[in-house]
Amino acid sequence: MSDPRIERSCGAIVFRLHGGVLQVLMVRHSARHWSFPKGHIEICETDKETAIREVFEETGIEITILSDFVEESTYSPRPGVKKTVRFFIGDYVGGVLSPQLEEVSNAEWMTPEEACELLTFDRDREIFRSALSHIGFAGAFSVNARYTIEELLQIMRFLRSDEGCPWDREQTHESIAGNMLEEAYEAVDAITSGNMEDLCEELGDVLMQVVFHTSMAEDKNLFDFDDVVSGICRKLISRHSHLFGDDQAKTPEEVLTIWNKNKDREKGLDSVSASLEAVSRGLPALTRALKLQKRAARVGFDWPDASGALDKIKEEYGEFCDALAVYRNIDTTGLVDTETTASTTVSDNFVKCQSANSQKGQSANSQSADKHFTNSRSSDGQSSFDQLAYSAKRKAVEEAGDLLFAVVNALRLSDIDPETALTMSSEKFIRRFSEVERLALSEGRKLESMTLEEMDVLWNQAKRMS
After folding, report:
1. What's residue 68's pLDDT?
2. How many Å apart are CA 419 and CA 283, to the nearest integer?
3. pLDDT digits (tens, 9 = 90+) for 45-81
């Protein structure tokens, strides 16, 4: 098949202010569709000269070309022909509206809203919105109930333009990074609630964040939206090598194995350690821990079942209690146990804490303190105490992390998602606490005036009701 014949035309989107109202010049062609004046380029004409001539010949209106705006529309008017129309922005100079009936059946001045409703082709509508944005007409994006992705990109470009919004214009990737997380979480919340109307809205908010970051990158000539789309398309094809390549997969588990293999290859992850390092530190901690464990499990570093992980929870719980007891002792008394070892029991540490607490208020050189403790504040000064307290707290935090990590492991091996489990517990807490407040108000009381014991009674009532 031979290449299509190329035809080139030029036209203009012509604006004028009439009685303080912005109007655009529209023509209805013999094919009964509404568009803008346009026509073929004649010999020795420039593109802009063609646009000016065609507007006058079709409508009797004289114009000048305004600014450096140019947009193209490409389509096939008939088999074997490819037509490209280049549009400029025209500024009304004068003339009386007189449609050339041999080429157009009608020509009218109309508002942008009216024009947008009448435009027959989607590409013409996109070009029109781009022209409105270019001249700084904020109403360009409030004239239709349904928009395309191209129009979303145009809106964002307008918002960040000199004629747009000061807040949008001054944002950076870093300043709105948290918005991406927030919008993603709200989308997940809509999924969890099963509200599809909310999900539609929240997915739009997520998409807006993508477009926002893309627009900022585009301004610096780093990448544009087409680059983003091209990247994900290439990734989907590459990762599904059982469909677009030579790999074979019949089950979801086999597909996941192929996906991970292709992902590691693309990212150059040639070792387990590199694979672990590649897990994003921006993920929620529970989710990141889950991913790390799954990657280690790929090479067999895993418990055979959840029972081993449950035993590990008990071990880590004991170590956490030991570390916490030491830290609480230092924090409340300034006394440091110089003989505490990893084998010290939880009860031993709390006995020592109780003994140390009984000595509070005595002088720094008192000989009645437990012989296993030294007062770091008196012997080494405040800085030594601060260092010991910092080290003890760091150890407690470390052991707390180990405990949480072990819990995530046990949940993973029990096919329970930790984020989902914790989210359910959080929602349950909200429901029960709301019930506690309702019960208190039914008694004519506010929670702020109640003791912990009194609130605990109401809490137990709320538990029985849920």
Report:
1. 81
2. 11
3. 999 999 999 999 999 999 999 878 999 998 887 787 8
Residue ranges covered by each domain of the chain: 5-135, 149-223, 269-300, 419-465
Pick from 51, 124, 38: nearest CA to 91: 51
Give me 58's structure tokens.
């079709």
The whole-angstrom separation of Cα 432 and Cα 177 is 34
CA distance 325 to 335: 12
The band of 338, judged by pLDDT with boundaries at 50, 70 and 90, is: very low
- The pTM (predicted TM-score) of the whole model is 0.53
Cα–Cα separations (whole angstroms), residue 44 to 41, 47, 50, 55, 82: 8, 10, 10, 18, 22
The arithmetic mean of pLDDT across residues 287-298, rounded, is: 94
Would you identify the CATH topology of the domain 5-135?
Nucleoside Triphosphate Pyrophosphohydrolase (3.90.79)
Q: Is 152 helix (H, G, I), strand (E, B) or coil?
A: helix
Gap between the Cα atoms of 305 and 412, Å rounded: 10
Measured CA to CA, the distance from residue 202 to residue 26 in angstroms comes to 37
Pair of tokens at residue 145:
């109930």
Distance CA 264, CA 105 (A): 62
- Residues ≥6 apart with Cβ < 8 Å to 80: 2, 4, 5
Phi/psi for 20 (5° steps) reads: 80, 5
Report the amino acid identity of residue 441: L
d(CA 353, CA 126): 73
Instruction: Report the distance separating Cα 370 and Cα 355, nearest Å.
Output: 7
Q: What's the start-to-end Cα distance of the chain, in Å?
A: 72
> Cα separation of 364 and 287, whole Å?
48
Check if CATH label 1.10.30.50 holds for domain 149-223: no
**Structure confidence by residue, pLDDT tens digits, 112-151:** 989 988 998 889 999 998 898 888 765 545 555 567 788 7
**On the CB side of 438, how many CA atoms lie within 13 Å of its CA?**
9
Mean pLDDT estimate for the chain: 85
Partners of 27 in beta bridges? 35, 107
